[in-house]
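Q: Given only this backbone (346 positions), what sequence would you predict?
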């Protein structure tokens, strides 16, 4: 392993962390503004111009809040749980390509942190690990409401992780690879020379099931049963305060970013900018356009996540389980069969 490789990896990690953390801070503000608009309110508008510094004020408040741990709680696991959640949320983005390979100073650079040939399996594995943070936080708090929230999260993850994994199989069959950058490159083709061959066109059922499963995996409305306030007070993070609670909050929004980036990569062409290759643009301009296209697609999906939260009511728990097992899994299995027949005969 060369020094150049290590420096390149550290630079990529630093850039992604800074961009993700900054985006998370402003996602909280964006969500508050969007919810205010939907509910005919003003939203944050006091701290800084148009309330732009509100997120930094909130982070400062969380840093200086007292860290209260219940006397009967398991203190070590109580502290470990939010660290698991945020570590998994940040690590999952490592295999997502946010741009194409570009040459600089005689060296090719891939715009992704981890170039692994099992990218999809890595993402599914990491999302499965993420539930440990929520489940352990519920158990370690020694609170019945928190424990119920943790158990709900684990049951929800198992139910929707299955349909999420099955949804991706159609994409893998079409691309012939588990490597995310190769899946994006495959979507650079055109149907009849006009329509971009994005997987949302080729795999509409897979896209819908994966999108719904992503809502469930990130515990966002209408799937936020692990923290349902009317039933569980606050769910798994009832006994958390200060920056520990802030880490759970941070992990939720980081998971939203990662989920949106994965959906864009698998179904919306990733960094592909349609027809850009038909113009004689400099390589740097093409790279910047592709990275911009990726960022815009992710931003639109994040906006969709937020609008859904403030427009659709929460499911009952039996409805959530019924949707996962009786609707999502059969749909995903049917999509695999139809994709197989299509590939066999065409």
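A: Predicted residues:
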């Amino acid at each position: 392993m060369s020094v150049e490789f290590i420096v390149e990896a550290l630079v990529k990690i630093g850039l992604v962390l800074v961009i993700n953390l900054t985006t998370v801070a402003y996602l909280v503000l964006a969500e508050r503004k969007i919810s205010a608009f939907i509910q005919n309110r003003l939203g944050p508008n006091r701290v800084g111009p148009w309330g732009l510094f509100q997120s930094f004020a909130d982070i400062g408040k969380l840093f200086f809040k007292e860290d209260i741990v219940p006397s009967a709680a398991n203190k070590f696991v109580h502290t470990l749980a939010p660290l698991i959640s945020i570590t998994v949320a940040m690590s999952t983005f490592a295999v997502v390509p946010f741009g194409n390979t570009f040459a600089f100073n005689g060296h090719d650079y891939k715009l992704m942190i981890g170039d692994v040939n099992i990218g999809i399996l890595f993402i599914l594995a990491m999302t499965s690990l993420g539930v440990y943070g929520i489940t352990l936080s519920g158990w370690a708090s020694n609170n019945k409401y928190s424990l119920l929230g943790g158990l709900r999260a684990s049951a929800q993850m198992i139910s929707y992780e299955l349909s999420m994994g099955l949804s991706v199989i159609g994409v893998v069959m079409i691309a012939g690879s588990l490597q995310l950058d190769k899946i994006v490159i495959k979507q650079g083709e055109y149907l009849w020379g006009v329509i971009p061959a994005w997987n949302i066109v080729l795999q509409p059922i897979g896209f819908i099931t994966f999108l719904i499963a992503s809502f469930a995996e990130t515990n966002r409305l209408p799937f936020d049963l692990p923290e349902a306030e009317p039933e569980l007070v606050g769910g798994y993070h009832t006994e958390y305060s200060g920056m520990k609670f802030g880490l759970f909050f941070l992990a939720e929004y980081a998971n939203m970013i990662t989920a949106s980036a994965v959906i864009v990569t698998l179904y919306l062409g990733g960094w592909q900018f349609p027809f850009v290759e038909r113009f004689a643009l400099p390589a740097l301009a093409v790279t910047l356009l592709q990275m911009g296209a990726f960022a815009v697609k992710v931003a639109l999906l994040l906006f969709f996540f937020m609008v859904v939260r403030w427009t659709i009511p929460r499911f009952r728990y039996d409805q959530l389980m019924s949707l996962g097992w009786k609707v999502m899994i059969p749909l995903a299995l049917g999509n695999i069969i139809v994709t197989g027949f299509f590939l066999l005969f065409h």
